[in-house]
Predict the 3D structure of the following.
Amino acid sequence: MNIVKSPAQIVWRYVASLSGVGLALGALFFAAALTPTLVPRSYLIQGVLAGTCFAIGYELGVLWRWLWRYLELPEPSPRIRSAANVAVAVGCFVTVILFLWRAAEWQNSIRSAMNMELVETAHPAKVSVIALITFFALFWLAESFKLVTSFVSGRIRRFIPRKIANFVGLLVAVLLIWSTANNLLIRAAFSALDSSFREFDALFEPERPQPGEATRTGSAASLVKWNELGRAGREFVASGPTAAQIAAFTGRPARNPLRVYVGLRGADTARGRAELALGELKRQGGFERSVLIVVTPTGTGWIDPAAMDTIEYLADGDVASVAVQYSYLNSPLSLLFQPEYGAEAARALFAVIYGHWTTLPKERRPRLYLHGLSLGAMNSQDSAELFETIGDPIAGALWSGSPFTSRIWRSITANRNAASPAWLPEFRDGRFVRFMNQNGPTVAPSTPWGPMRVVFLQYASDPIVFFDYHYAYQRPTWINAPRGPDVSAELRWYPVVTMLQIAVDMAVATGTPLGMAMSTRQNTMSMHGLPWPIYEIGRARHLEDLRFISEGLRTSLPAPAAIIPTPTGEDNGRLRCAQCFGTENWSLGHLYRFSLRQDQVDLSFVNDIGECEEFFAIVQAVVQAGWVFWSTTPSICIACQPFCSGAHIRFSCAWLRCL
């Protein structure tokens, strides 16, 4: 007699068939995935991550149980096993509930360190539902893999011994699934993504017309066609400050900066694009400038304007920069699918630029620097070998947010001075290499430089910098005290789980505030008609901050056109936050004065922040005082992050240490 089972019975029987050891370990992995790491996570990301960790923990538990039986180790009696299973199940359930309850608190520990708005809830119900869906999807994939293994081993077991058949079945299943995933799924996905990014790169922006000046890349006289620059290239060459803007800002004579860029469509090979870039740079007179920068862009070809605008202001426009595109994909995808393309393009560009640069008289040629952000930093580090340049060294390099695979960064970090933390190393006496973050460098500004200057700009909360596969079984050194200022005090290391958490953090790191993780400002030196430091004043979080700023501007400030250290132990010239004054979060800054006319400043940006007469009055007082800030320590108040914590101020500090 056939008995028709209800769906509830089928589900219950299916759940009951799951491994108890696997569920216990999976629950612990699920709970650990809720703890904080480097960047905040949404409930969707958190749910997928927790479900993935649950599935991995479950399968590890199944593997452990299988290995125990395979080795024929003694097993407890059914009565003891049942009692232990109940105890473990209750303990795991309580642990999961407790960790879900604390999830919001842990997320807020990251948000508090980053000065982000706190959340009231981590949406535990949504996280749990998403995690279960993710778990069962991955569980089904694992079961499919087991079925393929059993099928293959069962067919060949009649010809060879059982253990060898099991091994061969496992090997065949791995090869079959890997081949299917790599040749069908991954390649199809890559092809679709590459096509999509290529089409996006080809789009023309109506707000960026073709340059009319013959000296600009992409003009009618240029060796590089405007329609071959790509979207990122057109943005790079069409933006940036003019000589008039620089002169108005600094009060000194200035030149129009030169920007050379060659897109992927410029030539068929990396060498061809590099030669084209060299020809265009020579046509524009780039080797006649005082500073020449070889820039390696990110995966999409994008170059951060916060870096380039800053150096162009610092050097009064007497700067030439050159870059070539090597991919359409963003940095993570480019690193995954095309890791060799960026290094090849960077090496080709540096070889032709450096080769021509070395033929010029030393007293007349520009200072040569390298620069890269994120994936660009990694590829830039691969562009030049020390033995190639030791006879005629370049001036230095600024590498920002170097990915964890960066060769030079890894070597220097591993060989740092013993007393320095991994998240902000000190290397030897600081004459050759220096590290800095949003709070400045560890080396005193008076420390003399050697013939070459290399600066690494990085943040302790940047997962792209600090990820490592070894975290699956090894505790990260940057977790040790003291921790970075933007790293949660609640962060703990859990085998396997922490590695997965930080891997996920890499995908969401760009959503963090300025000065945290890999967040950078995508703007030029003028926003809302304002030179950027005035705009940053508009972003100050507290009116009390602005009161102190205003007081410092209007009283006892030194003579103009000089960078002045704030006197230690005195109140004159200090900018301080009322909430943090006298605490460990309070730090000093340096000031720089420029002449600003009232009619050059547009205060309409105040409307974007909110109607507040007191706020407007304070900002107006700041503007009328004619002061703008260029800080050599990029944070006035570490905790409150007032106006000088933006990307430009950080890059200005880094470039000042290179120049």
Remarks:
- Residues 435 and 530 are 31 Å apart (CA to CA).
